[in-house]
Design brief:
Layout: H1 3-16, H2 19-33, H3 41-62, H4 74-85, H5 90-113, H6 119-171, H7 178-185, E1 192-200, H8 207-222, E2 229-234, E3 237-243, E4 256-265, H9 266-286, E5 295-297, H10 298-301, H11 311-321, E6 326-327, H12 329-343, H13 348-355, H14 359-373, H15 381-394, E7 400-401
Parallel strand pairs: 4-5, 6-7
Antiparallel strand pairs: 1-3, 1-4, 2-3
């Protein structure tokens, strides 16, 4: 046995006789750096036992035992599970071990320095100690991270399943009073909330992460200071309720589509706003991919929410617009000009200002639109407005392919 190995084994035996005092010092450091770990009595009990067991394990390794032959303290896994259940990040667990490692190494380095060895041997002993300490802490940390993650994943699944069951009950008109629902969901439903449905293409990479980011981005755009209620009815869809009455939401194009159903108040508003968001999703899903926007609101669709977005609507659009419903750039310009004219209350000046065109150009395009349609606006002006809206929102779903 080398001089360094013999020294570390002897020091480990000495420290083992005073391991409780060393554990107390470790706990002082953890209490100072991570005060949140001392609030729960059961967590405190597990933490004390974990510190004691970890120190004893590290000292056994220093006596010459192989790392893999030294069992990890069973209580460490229980501590990791408990912290995961309380939502304590795994980084806190790792930080606690690093604090303990620091105290452990300081104690042993002090004893090595006072051992009477030469400078070279002291340096060798410190390096050997550091290797053992890091190796043991890494091994225990990996185990605790795995236990923490598994428990956290299971807890999140159970929580989400319970939330989804309650949300389904509320949407079906059950679930109890406002107080009972709020207690079960952990989310206020008495005030104003804005419902959203977010969904992603199943073929998109990492759809779960994409949905999480989109939920957060919508909340940021709305200026929410409180987290939304979010449930996942399937792997590619999220239902969300954001606090407040909402506002304009603009997101860059991405793999996630967002349907906003408008605000609602109380349980009835919780249900109604969600129904509107689901209806917006149905209409957007029926649209041609090229026509879809990242975010669509109920106000964007207007009367389209009342209509069937399938074949019946396409037939009706063709009946109302005639050849104006041809899907090409030329007829799209005519449709855009006619829509601007109608939005402006039949004002050429208003349409020209919106489109940044000369008034005469607008007038020419309007005459051309009537020629292509085959008849003037006449008495079906409202039908024309709805048909133009359908063309803008649904695109090729309701347009006729160009020859």
């Amino acid at each position: 046995m080398s001089t360094v190995t013999a020294l570390l084994a002897r020091l480990a035996t000495e420290v083992h006789g005073d391991v409780e005092a060393l554990g107390a010092r470790v706990l002082v450091e953890i209490d100072a750096g991570l005060p949140e770990l001392g609030r729960d009595p059961r967590v405190r009990e597990l933490l004390v036992a974990t510190v004691q067991g970890s120190l004893e394990g590290a000292l056994v390794v220093l006596t010459g035992r192989a790392q893999d032959d030294v069992p990890l303290p069973p209580v460490a896994g229980e501590l990791a599970r408990r912290l995961a259940q309380q939502g304590v990040p795994v980084t806190v667990v790792l930080r606690a071990y690093r604090l303990g490692q620091s105290v452990f190494q300081q104690e042993l380095i002090g004893r090595i320095a006072g051992s009477g060895l030469g400078t070279t041997e002291v340096g060798d002993a410190v390096r050997a100690l550091t290797a053992v300490a890091f190796g043991y802490v890494d091994r225990v940390s990996e185990e605790m991270v795995a236990v923490h993650q598994a428990e956290r994943d299971g807890w999140v699944r159970r929580r989400d399943a319970a939330r989804l069951a309650m949300v389904d009950a509320v949407l079906a008109g059950r679930g109890g009073t406002v107080t009972e629902v709020e207690a079960a969901l952990g989310h206020p439903v008495a005030g104003e909330h804005l419902a959203a449905v977010l969904w992603v293409d199943p073929d998109a990479p990492d759809p779960g992460r994409a949905l999480e980011r989109a939920v957060a981005d919508v909340g940021a755009a709305l200026g929410c200071t409180r987290a939304p209620l979010v449930v996942a009815p399937d792997a590619v869809t999220s239902w969300a309720w954001y606090p407040g009455t909402g506002g304009p939401v603009t997101l860059p194009p991405g793999p996630v589509s967002v349907a906003l159903g408008g605000p609602g108040r109380g349980l009835d508003g919780f249900r109604g706003a969600h129904r509107r968001a689901r209806r917006v999703q149905e209409v957007v899903t029926a649209a041609a991919p090229a026509a879809r926007l990242p975010v669509t609101t109920a106000d964007d669709l207007g009367p389209l929410l009342l209509l069937d977005a399938g074949t019946l609507l396409a037939d009706r659009v063709a009946e109302i617009l005639g050849d104006l419903a041809i899907d090409d750039e030329q007829h799209a310009r005519l449709r855009d000009t006619l829509a601007a004219y109608l939005r402006g209350g039949g004002s050429l000046v208003a349409a020209a200002g919106e489109l940044h065109l000369h008034k005469n150009t607008v007038q020419y395009r309007l005459r051309r639109a009537e020629e292509v349609r085959g008849r003037p606006l006449g008495d079906d002006r409202l039908d024309v407005e709805v048909a133009l809206l359908a063309c803008r929102v649904l695109g090729a779903t309701v347009l006729r392919p160009a020859d």
